[in-house]
């Protein structure tokens, strides 16, 4: 059987072709030369299943879609305090080229507007890094995210440099407030080269899925960012990624997203998947016309609205088996707070007043720290109530299962 | 065994007592009389499990926390087009009392600032509704959300009316742009009475959980709002609920939230749970000092950051059992897109080239529309590939299981 | 001979008829009923010579042109400190209906925008004055300015009251910041009645000439305002009278001005004259299309640009007559700083080293305080140098001519 | 006798020493090294009488006081249309370093804020001028204004260049909107060199007096700017010269002014005089503390408020002498509209019904174009009424005295 998901995607991009409006970016000649009918889409689950259709091998410059990833690199490298001191995280209520810096702090409002992105790039590699060193670090991380070696489109970079007055203005303002210390030329060159990295929709979907998966590239299994960094990056994308239409986008589409002027559009659903589309014609806000249409359709048809997540908590308790010998609470899936709560409820409901209770983690994928603490506390209490408590954990999902008194739970016989 | 969750909550609110700053609202005398040491917290899962601690039976006026619920009532009653024509959904980048209306449309920026909330209330019950009728409708809905009959604190309402110059100004501006057609006095009175509804943290947690649960009150099981309305309300809370600090709040705490001047704070995690705290002293932004501290701690300790959701997709396939007679794909939990994708992957991997495939939904809680379509399409393709396809669905989770040619899948013998 | 000035004015308004654009205000029906072809103009010198042409007897509502005069009444009655604490004097950079109040002080930006004008009106007659009392005081002063009893157009006042949502919003905001303490209804009613005072272009030209003449109505000779008040009112008209086009207006026309929505336009040239036009069709900024054209033409043709004032200082020394007996320095005109400087130069140049010097003020109209001090100081120094100093001042223009040692200058024989 | 004016000025600056607050500009080291007790003041009448006291020979960098003069040079050289297309003339309501460009036009708000001044300087000498050429042209004009050869402080220019990030940002923004076409480095260098021109308070007072005198340097007699240019420059100084405090300044001081960060302050009274002070300590708005105090005192004591001009019209008619032979109307001073009006009134009042009327211009300094037209029209009408009209004009103040029918008025016998 062939998976229908690619067919779904094909149907959706075919349907999106009916949107004929929009203009290809023409502020630099090299962008305007692109075939406006190019169209591709890709989807990658947090488990690493990648689907793509249309012009999914066509490489285009990443442009502003680089912003969330450069922000993630900066957060990873310098820590949130240092980054926070240089770039805020509030929506600016303005367009992408808003230049205003905070009156008190001299900081850009957020890392998704251009002036904020220039500031972010300068944080990478330290104060005295060369342009090549900064861009090299970024390219390495972007490549790790995509799972393949990426490269820079030198024609795009050159053309952008030849039309960089506004960026130069922003870099000088950042120098003036002390956010940038390198020369304005270096700052702008680094930023422009970052934006000229060539990607396909397949790359972007996997990069997005890495954020959605808490920082672990779901295909290579490499941890690229910490979970905390991914949380912060996706939160800022949600509030500021679509510039001054972020509120409406999150209401109607509900997928944290970032668009690029070359026609790319990327979205993430935390814990679930990454999405990407490519189609050059842009709407007046600078977002890909067909890309927006595809995201809207996916959100509606596929239930991908962040705020429309289905209740999942009860899934954690796979089964409660009560025999004469023991009550077995079999858990599964990832164990977050809701999973832990479901387990505790099952434990409270334990029918047998004082018999053996087996907690079975054989089917559990990963255990959140909170889940681990809740399971351990539940086991401690069960023992405190007089139960004999056993833990079945063949994969070792529950590290350091100390029951609070230095002892560890017994392991049941390998019957099941 | 006693559940440790209440003990967790107790520990957290005890810890929050160390935050001694903040000022009780004193713009009306009746609010300033409150005991500043009152402190309560509650948590309600989307499954309807309610935990509460501290002063959890103390009733206080809901104030601005009424805004998301009134917005939901208006959306439910009038539809998103009518509401959208009167109130936007972008963060205003300003404080709660920002009065600016959109230059072109005359609309308030969003329903979370006061001027937007006044406009929203006027949408309820239709143009010619009396104050009593509008407020009656709201009180009914709020009561349905809380699962008990709520009432209005007449002293608070009276006191607010006596200090309502700014609200009157906003109502007159809304009249001027045609958003409000009733008298300014009626508009302000309706809004003030809405804000004076008395609630406890238990009420608020359940009300929040109803939004998180897609509109079904998780304890009474009553559908109060549609899933689409809950999505929109939570999205607007995320982008504008914490006024001009919404970006930082979503980054650091990651829980769509709304605070009230009486000391309440409410949060929702879509698909997961509702939260509420009560503690009167407010920070300069008007948010409960201890409430904020509790939310921060819950987000950190309990992994409740919206953008830190754990991958859950693979949970959907409970088991794939291959026997000589058949391959059984047992599903479980709610089936959303990721669940559907996991099922389809299992179907593609089906070892038996042409035998019987049983899709077992016995453990499935609910099936998203997208999940239903993906399961049906998978079954159609399996049959197209030559399989005999059977559906085990004792609870009828998959309505209208048409295989595309007018036939329905067979039901396996009730062996399992 | 008939003065050609009226013929000039007639020619200018005839020429202005070629401007056929603009729309008559129609936000209230009573204004929209006016004949759009009505056209009048008037000019009154600071000496009280009044010229008028066209529909110069047609009465229309004064509207916003009342603002500078109400501001003057408030300044006169309450003093600049009290007024300044309630209303600022900076251009707002916004349109007439800008509602923003200063964040720190809660004050409107200036008295020429509507919200500032409402605040100003409430200063008149004291905190507890009734609407009738406030409006009565204003009407008395306006009548003194016009030199005849003015009245209120009750139909206009009623119609404005029926469309006063925006004004009510402003009044409530002013109550909220404590600038207004009366009820919003009273504040708006007072302001609306002030705007409904009926005037002709002849009235307005004389009212303007009173400001230009330092507060003395040039026809009746009554002092209505102090010189300091007139200075302040004209300065605020210059910077904020034409709302957000004030800079361009002062650059191209150069006459401090104020327009009204009924079609009136008033201008002042300090020390020189007052101007007024009436023609109902308005441009998009709310200024009379033909009125603006007439002002532009007058400024260009008649050299009326405030910044294009001709040097006048040397005029002060009418004649220096040197005889054997004495050197007579005959002064004339008003004596300001430049006049005083010219006198002192003549005194320094006094040919006779030690003879008699006669200072002749027979032709002097008025002596500024600064002029008086400069003349006295010059006479003291002449005497200190050994001159016999005499003062001819038949009209008593130089009060208290003490020479610094308790003596007064001699008076020459009445020969000349 | 010694003129008391210098003594007045000395007294005023001595009094100003009591103001000990303010900080010397320290954003570049070379400015911070100045002696903060330096204090000078100068006053130059439109007739060219120059008074100065204190450190009146100390040279300091002109800084922002160069802005109105560079604007005048640009207007003179390129015409108002070209300049207007690049720089607006509205107050920005913001501080001196406001960077916002008009959204539609890309223009700076006005030429008094830094970004506007950079744009203005680039208009001088044409698009392809070198830095040296542009600065050379400016230096020539500034020298003509001062009446002596000025030079540039190279240390100041170098130091400013080393701290020019903000200026570079502004230049790049102007390049981005097309207002500036030269390189940003050239634009900033030209502007910085313009600001580093060395001047004394005597220079500034004469430069200001040239504006007040309609463009004729009152000491050298050289016409440097046209009257129209002076009008525009002084109007823009009035509305925007003191940045966001311009309204209050014009209300309380009433002298169009411009301050510089080195401690200079310049003011003009059209038709009357120019003023300048120098004292390095600045208030938080960047204006010289003692300079402001001196201006306030001069305005109050010396009646120099622009809006407090004394009525002067009647001064024009020196005498009306009625003899049997003729009625002689002797005029004097400059003849503007008000002077013309006074003459016409005298003509209308002519007692003799049909005798000879002599118009005597022997004492007239200059005749405004409007005055000329009014006198001629009066003479034509007198003749039309049957009078014999004669003109006494020994200095030829009334060029082309055509009476409307090709004839010229007779000249009376040189009796008087």
Automatic annotation (TrEMBL), chains A, B, C, D:
Binding residues for substrate: 64, 114, 160, 191, 243, 261
Stored PROSITE patterns: STAS
Enzyme class: hydrolase
Basic and acidic residues composition bias: residue spans: 387-396, 405-416
Bilayer-crossing regions: none
Keywords from the UniProt entry: Acetylation, Hydrolase
Domain STAS: 316-391
Catalytic activity: L-glutamine + H2O = L-glutamate + NH4(+)
Annotated spans, Disordered: 387-416
Quaternary assembly: Homotetramer.
Family: Belongs to the glutaminase family.
Protein name: Glutaminase
Designated gene of the protein: glsA
């Amino acid at each position: 059987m062939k998976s229908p998901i690619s067919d779904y995607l094909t149907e959706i991009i075919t349907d999106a072709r009916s949107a004929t409006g929009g203009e290809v970016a023409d502020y630099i000649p090299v962008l305007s030369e692109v075939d406006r009918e190019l169209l591709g889409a890709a989807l990658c689950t947090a488990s690493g299943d990648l689907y793509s259709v249309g012009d999914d091998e066509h490489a285009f410059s990443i442009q502003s879609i680089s912003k969330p990833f450069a922000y993630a690199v900066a957060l990873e490298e310098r820590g949130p305090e240092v980054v926070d001191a240089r770039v805020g995280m509030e929506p600016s209520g303005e367009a992408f080229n808003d230049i205003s810096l905070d009156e008190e702090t001299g900081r850009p409002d957020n890392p998704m507007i251009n002036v904020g992105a220039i500031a972010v790039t300068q944080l990478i590699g330290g104060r005295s890094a060369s342009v090549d060193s900064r861009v090299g670090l970024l390219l390495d991380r972007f490549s790790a995210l995509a799972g393949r070696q990426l490269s820079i489109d030198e024609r795009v970079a050159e053309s952008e440099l030849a039309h960089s007055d506004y960026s130069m203005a922003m870099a000088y303002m950042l120098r003036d407030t002390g956010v940038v210390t390198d020369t304005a030329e270096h700052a702008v060159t680094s930023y422009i080269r970052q934006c000229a990295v060539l990607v396909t929709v397949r790359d972007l979907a996997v990069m997005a899925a890495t954020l959605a998966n808490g920082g672990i590239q779901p295909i290579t299994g490499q941890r690229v960012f910490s979970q905390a960094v991914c949380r912060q990056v996706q939160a800022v994308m949600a509030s500021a990624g679509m510039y001054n239409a972020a509120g409406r986008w999150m209401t109607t589409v509900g997928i944290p997203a970032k668009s690029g002027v070359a026609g790319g559009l990327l979205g993430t659903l935390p814990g679930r998947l990454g999405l990407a589309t490519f189609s050059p014609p842009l709407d007046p806000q600078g977002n890909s016309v067909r890309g927006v249409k595809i995201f809207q359709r996916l959100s509606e048809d596929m239930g991908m609205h962040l705020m429309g997540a289905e209740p999942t908590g009860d899934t954690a308790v796979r089964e409660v088996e009560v025999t004469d010998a023991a009550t077995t609470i079999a858990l599964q899936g990832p164990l977050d707070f809701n999973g832990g709560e479901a387990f505790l409820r099952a434990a409270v409901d334990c029918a047998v007043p004082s018999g053996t209770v087996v907690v079975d983690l054989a089917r559990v994928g990963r255990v959140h720290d909170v889940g681990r603490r809740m399971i351990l506390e539940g086991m401690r209490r069960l023992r405190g109530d007089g139960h004999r408590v056993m833990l079945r954990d063949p994969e070792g999902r529950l590290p350091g299962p100390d029951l609070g008194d230095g002892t560890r739970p017994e392991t049941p016989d390998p019957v099941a």
